[in-house]
Design brief:
Distance between the termini: 53 Å
CATH topology of one domain: Butyryl-CoA Dehydrogenase, subunit A, domain 3
Shape: globular
Mean pLDDT: 91
CATH superfamily of one domain: Butyryl-CoA Dehydrogenase, subunit A, domain 3
Low-confidence stretches: none
Number of strands: 11
Number of helices: 24
CATH class of one domain: Mainly Alpha
Length: 669
């Protein structure tokens, strides 16, 4: 928090707050002790000053941005190692912070080491044998080696079965030969691959004894451990500048008949014996583990980015005064305009909705993973369907939400100094990595279609799709109920109705002579909408249930505000889906009018607590990194300070004046 003078408008907002901000901070963190631990970690890491930049990185060249990111990443992990030794604390204590807000503050444009921790190590742990883990994981945790994870290719992304990189087993030498047969088979996108990593987990088509066994993971050394030069047959480099995350060091990778030992195939599930005999995994679905882990993490990341964006936009909206709706009265704070509240308050609620849903999904992920270890695969398809649609919906909502916050800040939101464009670059990237969102929704739709068919056959369903049973049984839509529970039930009717229509549409097209695949493709727009409606019902239901459970232990004042946020979020989405609700439920025009009034009433009730709510996300100025959103509200002063840091302001007359402008103006050019 800033120790300087605080903008008076922002200070007045804090006086209006009806609840104890510290209580909400503790509630979000999971208790006062966890808040204390988080703050201690943040103070320790920020005290080192790694986040300070002599020249703001926005003014650096592409090459310089990468070099700065590597420098910071090395300083950061060197310091973490020291803190571990001093405190005898586990690495996970610090990795938890670095995966969230603190990591993005220090490495604001992405880290070249991210995939080492979120993909390379988890894949070793999830798909390596005990012997492989013993050999590789210690080296990886100590950063003796740096790894990445290469799956996506230039020509194929989400369609994993279409990947072209081959790994052919040679029984005479007991080696795999990795090869990139085409330009489109080059690996493309992995973070840290370009110039940082010296090892990589490569997903490739396994061939042995002339037969293809599909995609499998292989550990491949890319660079010499001493010189860092690419090894023979390895073609590696950087893919170029992007909308955001330019410190991530995304790369390309090609293989020209590169040989690796047999035991460099990760063999916890499938195996290749010395003579080339292929041994199947107990289930092909066991390889989903790493991807699902990352998708679960993404939902949590979206929560962090949204918290940053709404904090910046809400504080700025309290400071910014504009227009004169009433003659002879001072310009009001733009936060007093209902349109501004409409843009921002749902974002505040979304942070809580995402966080509670991410917690719920994480618990489910751990339970299903434990069941997998025991050989029980029953709930794996349900978890896969959930992680797909929640990844798609949370990233799309975060991208739309961050952009709405940027627009809510007017022209100043367009400044990189606001940190909103950079934040948008991060969230919109998430819409395509780890599974493009449309494809993710179609994955969920496949599960929903199967669930519908099971329900129609009178079979039991897993908990998250159990609601389909009542609709397939042909029960009539109940009277509309304008409560949160009633709206959630309405969303389930919408999702079920859409799934049912998709199934009917596919069957009708098949009867008309279409093959199933073409019928599916023709129905795919409706299928994505059905999956999205299902996911929205899950988020609304989870947010409502988890909040109801967790507010039992808080003060009445805080409980009231937290439940108002739930109401706002649920009613907001009901109004967004009003056409679907009219189509699939018994809602009336009068009910919609009442929902609109309820929504506007909630905006008014939440208005005094807006700044208190974003203060409760407790994001330090160094982490927020925004001229518009700092705790002291000195937005205009900070914008000017940032402007003066531009290298163009270092001299009163730029060299280009003498080289070009003056001769041109005097007609001599």
């Amino acid at each position: 928090m800033s120790s300087g003078k605080v903008n008076s408008d922002l200070q007045n907002e804090r006086h209006k707050c009806t609840f104890n901000v510290t209580e909400l901070i503790n509630w979000i963190d999971g208790g006062a002790k966890k808040t204390e631990e988080r703050k201690k970690r943040e103070d320790m890491l920020l005290k080192e000053g790694i986040h300070h930049e002599e020249v703001p990185s926005m003014y650096l060249s592409h090459k310089e941005k990468y070099e700065l990111a590597v420098k910071k990443a090395c300083m950061l992990f060197k310091m973490i190692r020291r803190l571990q030794e001093e405190e005898n604390a586990g690495m996970e204590n610090y990795m938890a912070v670095l995966g969230g807000n603190l990591g993005s503050a220090i490495l604001s444009d992405g880290s070249p080491l991210t995939l080492h921790y979120v993909m390379f190590i988890p894949t070793l742990m999830g798909q390596g044998t005990v012997e492989q883990q013993a050999y590789w994981i210690g080296r990886a945790f100590n950063l003796s080696i740096i790894g990445t994870y290469a799956q996506t290719e230039l020509g194929h992304g989400t369609f994993i079965r279409g990947l072209e990189t081959t790994a052919t087993y040679d029984a005479t030498t007991k080696e795999f030969v990795l090869h990139s047969p085409t330009l489109t088979s080059y690996k493309w996108w992995p973070g840290g691959l370009a110039h940082t990593a010296n090892y990589c987990i490569v997903m490739a088509q396994l061939y042995t004894k002339g037969q293809c066994h599909g995609i499998h993971p292989f550990i491949v050394q890319l660079r010499d451990e001493e010189t860092h030069m690419p090894l023979p047959g390895i073609k590696v480099g950087e893919i170029g500048a992007k909308l955001g995350m330019n410190g991530t060091n995304n790369g390309f990778l090609g293989f020209d008949q590169v040989r690796i030992p047999r035991d460099h195939m990760l063999m916890k599930n499938s195996k290749v014996l010395e003579d080339g005999t292929y041994v199947n995994a107990p289930s092909s679905k066991l390889t989903y583990g790493t991807m699902m882990f990352v998708r679960v993490m993404i939902v949590n990341d979206m929560c962090n980015y949204m918290a940053k964006a709404v904090t910046i936009a809400t504080r700025y909206s309290a400071v910014r005064r504009q227009s004169q709706p009433k003659p002879n009265e001072p310009e009001p704070q733009i936060l007093d305009y209902v349109t501004q509240q409409h843009k921002l308050f749902v974002g505040i609620a979304a942070v809580h909705a995402f966080r509670l849903t991410a917690d719920w999904l994480w618990t489910m992920y751990n339970n299903v993973t434990a069941e997998l270890e025991a050989g029980d695969l029953e709930r794996l398809p349900e978890l896969h369907a959930l992680s797909c649609c929640l990844k798609a919906v949370s990233t799309a909502e975060a991208a739309a939400g961050v952009e709405r916050c940027r627009l809510a800040c007017g022209g100043h939101g367009y400044m990189l100094a606001s940190n909103l464009p950079t934040t948008y670059g991060h969230v919109t990237a998430a819409c395509t990595y780890e599974g493009e969102n449309t494809v993710m929704l179609l994955q969920t739709a496949r599960y929903l279609v199967k669930a519908w068919q099971q329900a129609a056959g009178g079979n039991a369903l897993t908990p998250t799709v159990a609601y389909l049973g009542s609709v397939t049984a042909g029960r009539r839509s109940p009277p509309w109920d304008s409560t949160v529970d009633g709206i959630v039930a309405g969303f389930r009717r919408v999702a079920a109705g859409k799934i049912g229509l998709c199934v009917a549409q596919i069957e009708k097209r098949q009867k008309g002579g279409m093959c199933y695949e073409d019928a599916w493709n023709m129905t795919s727009v409706q299928l994505t909408e059905a999956a999205e409606a299902h996911c929205r019902a899950i988020i609304l239901s989870t947010y409502h249930k988890e909040t109801e459970e967790r507010v039992k232990s808080v003060s009445p004042a805080l409980k009231k505000v937290l439940l108002q946020l739930v109401d706002l979020y649920v009613v907001y989405w009901a109004l967004q889906y009003v056409g679907d609700l009219l189509r699939f439920t018994s809602i009336s025009e009068r009910d919609i009018e009442l929902l609109q009034n309820w929504y506007e009433d909630l905006l008014t009730k939440l208005r005094p607590n807006a700044v208190g709510l974003v203060d409760s996300f407790d994001i330090k100025d160094e982490i927020l990194n925004s001229a518009l959103g700092a705790y002291d509200g000195r937005a205009y002063e900070r914008l000017m300070e940032d402007a003066m840091r531009s290298p163009l302001n270092a001299q009163p007359v730029n060299d280009s004046f003498h080289k070009y402008l003056k001769p041109f103006m005097q007609g001599k050019l």
